Amino acid sequence: MSIRGASAIVGIGEIPTKRVMPRRTDIGLLGEVTKMALDDAHFQKSDINGLITSEGSRNGLVKYIGINPPFAMGVALAAASGAATIQLAAAAITTGYCDTLPCAISGTARWRWSSWAEYGQ
């Protein structure tokens, strides 16, 4: 079984990368790029029946944007997370788990190497 041609990227949302974004949360940023992608694709929130996002953000993003998709998962593969979400989305669509899903990834590696007291300085 091939997934070639069975799915397509039809919308995109992107926020410029910055070292620090004061008073912005990962969930808020994920919600913002999800809305941008839906608008770009001319989809409504009601069209979504799946979601792939950063590990640890899945439940928060589902609540933030107000959806209850039957298929939702989080991905934590460091620098490979973006590419992995696209592969997983294509597989989920091809196998019938869902037919419309945003792939929303955010985060920073900075917290891994510094204390919370240093974060944002």
Number of domains: 1
Mean pLDDT over all positions: 82
What is the rounded Rg? 15 Å
Q: From the helix content, strand content and strand pairing, which structural class follows?
A: alpha/beta
Oligomer: single chain
How many angstroms separate the termini? 50 Å
- Please give the share of residues in helix: 25-40%
pLDDT < 50 runs, ≥5 residues = 109-121
Strand order of the largest sheet: 2-1-3
List the helices and strands and how they pair.
Layout (H helix, E strand, L loop, with lengths): L25 H16 L8 E5 L3 H8 L5 E5 L5 H14 L8 E2 L5 H4 L8
Parallel strand pairs: 1-2, 1-3
Helix pairs in contact: 1-2
Q: Top keywords for this entry?
A:
single chain; 121 residues; alpha/beta; 3-stranded parallel beta sheet; disordered C terminus
Protein described:
This protein has 121 residues and is an alpha/beta fold. The chain has helices spanning 26-41, 58-65, 81-94, 110-113; strands at 50-54, 71-75, 103-104. Strands 2-1-3 form a three-stranded parallel beta sheet, sandwiched between helices. Helix 1 (26-41) packs across helix 2 (58-65). The longest helix has 16 residues, at 26-41. The chain is globular and about 45 Å long.
